[in-house]
Amino acid sequence: MKQRFLLITLLLSIFLAIPVFSDENIANIEPDKDEIMAEEIKPLVIPPKWTDFCETGYENAVYKDSHDLFNVFSFVKSERIKKKYWAERRVSFEKYLKSCNALSDEAKATCYAELKKSEEQKNDLYKLQRKQLLYESNVDIHRR
């Protein structure tokens, strides 16, 4: 008998502890749809990343004005020129990105789009120049 009494009181205390919601209480809990619409929804503006445009292996290229001991070899010179090119492009990209970050939220999206377009044009020009250089050096590009 004591066990039943304890069980009943335990169940009653659990049921009494659970809040009962009526339609009025639910209306107070849920936010009003007009309030949600009134909030200003800002589009997510993601800045472009340098790694999206940079050639693999040159993401952190730094221009050094020193000459290598092995500068007589053409591959060392060409590697230094390539590293210099990507280092200068990275500095230019970071300056442009910094100027975009200083703008208001509305102007950032446009600035980022212009930066992306500019970098893609530079990449297209770079690829074209590389093909032209290989052609002038009489190197078969598609040789296997």
How would you portray this structure in words?
The protein is built from five helices and no strands. Helix 4 packs antiparallel against helix 5. 62% of the residues lie in helices and 0% in strands. The radius of gyration is 32 Å and the shape is elongated. The protein has 144 residues and is mostly helical.
Shape: elongated
Instruction: Detail the poorly predicted runs.
Output: none
Largest sheet: none
How would you spell out the order of helices and strands? HHHHH
The class by helix and strand makeup works out as mainly alpha
Strand fraction: under 5%
Q: Tell me the span between the first and last alpha carbons.
A: 92 Å
Give the total of beta strands.
0
Multimeric state: single chain
Helix content: 55-70%
What integer is the average pLDDT?
A: 77
Radius of gyration: 32 Å
Count of helices?
Answer: 5
List keywords for this structure.
mainly alpha, 144 residues
Short structural summary:
Helices cover 62% and strands 0% of the residues.
In terms of topology, how is this protein built?
Layout: H1 2-17, H2 23-29, H3 33-38, H4 74-101, H5 105-136
Helix pairs in contact: 4-5
